[in-house]
């Protein structure tokens, strides 16, 4: 869609891209960027339009999308084009799905790859491998307290193993589903570690407070997710000397999507796994993405805008990749997702 304000913004952004990006011939990337930019710009403006650095943040976003497109393998780009032509490919009744923990089913990713013929013989051609990213042992929340978003946990194998699994599945016309935890990180994540050391940039990646005034105000309307094991929604971090929002567990720090840098980081991570060969990405705990004082901090309109924005960004770089979302909400709210 053509709209003057967004078109003018796009022209300015393209002029400010890093030279190593601007000099490349990226025909399909620019075609998709132009087709999706009105929506991307509109959503970004709705979320962050009051910020003085809006344009700089949008330049950073577009550079992230371009860099991940440049890195995308030729066979994945070819798949993107095919799925754009057959845009209802995922609605086929031929897909038969299965979800599993690779360590319990096959030991590790190499073992899972070896068992693909068995799964295919059962009729399974869509495989959801439950969380496999690097987490601290003993504080992993079953794989949902991620210490490193771009590294497979050594207990399951390596990044090369997941790429080999994806390549073999693609040859067998099987779909790979992977989890991306978008709401929080482990307190051992690099961003949290930098925040602990007093880095204001990374403290702004989370909800961090000097005293109980704001946490107590949030607590007035926020329900407890695990009241028996993790009561309250904030944890005192002695090393940082501050309170941090921890909706799920004390070792899971909630990300602050009011900071556009967090969104851009997570879009980059989503595209990283798209480039490793995932066909479908499952977004974890999406109902909790936006926190608003005086609310339950669940199912906010902005959470839906964030999801739309993430998907539109993926449409530019990796349009052949689908999203599914974990919406832990009341039945009446599910249709919104």
Task: Report the CATH architecture of the largest domain.
Answer: Alpha-Beta Barrel
- Look up the CATH topology of the largest domain: TIM Barrel
Largest sheet: 5 strands, parallel
**Rg from alpha-carbon coordinates:** 20 Å
Give the number of DSSP strands. 12
Low-confidence stretches: none
Explain this structure to me?
Helix 1 packs across helix 3, helix 3 runs antiparallel to helix 14 and helix 13 packs across helix 14. The strands form 4 sheets. This protein has a 5-stranded parallel beta sheet with strand order 1-2-5-11-12. Strands 7-9-8 form a 3-stranded antiparallel beta sheet, covered by helices on one side. Helix 14 links the parallel strand 11 and strand 12. The longest helix is centred in the first third of the chain and has 22 residues. The protein has 3 domains: 68 residues; 188 residues, TIM Barrel (Alpha-Beta Barrel), CATH 3.20.20.80; 69 residues, Alpha-Beta Complex (Oligo-1,6-glucosidase, domain 2). The protein contains 15 helices and 12 strands. 46% of the residues lie in helices and 14% in strands. The radius of gyration is 20 Å and the shape is globular. The model has no long low-confidence stretch (mean pLDDT 94).
């Amino acid at each position: 869609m053509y709209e003057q304000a967004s078109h003018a913004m796009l022209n300015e952004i393209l002029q400010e891209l890093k030279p190593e990006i601007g000099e490349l011939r990226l025909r399909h990337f620019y075609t998709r960027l132009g087709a999706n930019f009105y929506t991307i710009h509109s959503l970004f403006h709705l979320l962050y339009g009051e910020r003085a650095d809006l344009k700089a943040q949008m330049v950073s976003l577009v550079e992230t999308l371009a860099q991940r497109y440049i890195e995308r393998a030729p066979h994945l780009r070819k798949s993107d084009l095919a799925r754009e032509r057959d845009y209802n490919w995922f609605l086929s009744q031929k897909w038969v799905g299965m979800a599993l923990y690779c360590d319990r089913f096959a030991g590790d990713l190499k073992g899972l790859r070896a068992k693909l013929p068995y799964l295919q013989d059962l009729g399974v051609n869509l495989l959801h491998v439950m969380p496999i990213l690097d987490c601290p042992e003993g504080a992993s929340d079953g794989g949902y307290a991620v210490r490193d978003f771009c590294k497979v946990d050594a207990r399951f194998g390596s990044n090369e193993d997941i790429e080999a699994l994806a390549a073999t599945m693609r040859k067998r016309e099987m779909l790979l589903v992977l989890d991306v935890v978008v709401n929080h990180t482990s307190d051992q994540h690099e961003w949290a570690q930098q925040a602990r050391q007093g880095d204001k940039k990374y403290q702004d990646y989370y909800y961090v407070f000097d005293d109980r005034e704001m946490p107590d105000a949030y607590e007035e309307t926020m329900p407890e997710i695990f009241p028996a094991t993790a009561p309250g929604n904030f944890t005192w971090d002695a090393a940082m000397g501050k309170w941090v929002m921890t909706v799920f567990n004390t070792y899971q720090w909630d990300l602050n999507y009011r900071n556009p840098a967090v969104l851009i980081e997570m879009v980059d991570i989503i595209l990283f796994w798209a480039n490793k060969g995932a066909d479908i990405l499952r977004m974890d705990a999406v109902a909790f993405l936006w926190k608003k004082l005086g609310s339950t901090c669940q199912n906010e309109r902005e959470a839906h805008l964030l999801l739309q924005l993430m998907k539109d960004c993926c449409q530019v770089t990796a349009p052949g990749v689908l999203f599914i979302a974990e919406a832990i909400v009341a039945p009446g709210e599910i249709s919104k997702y």
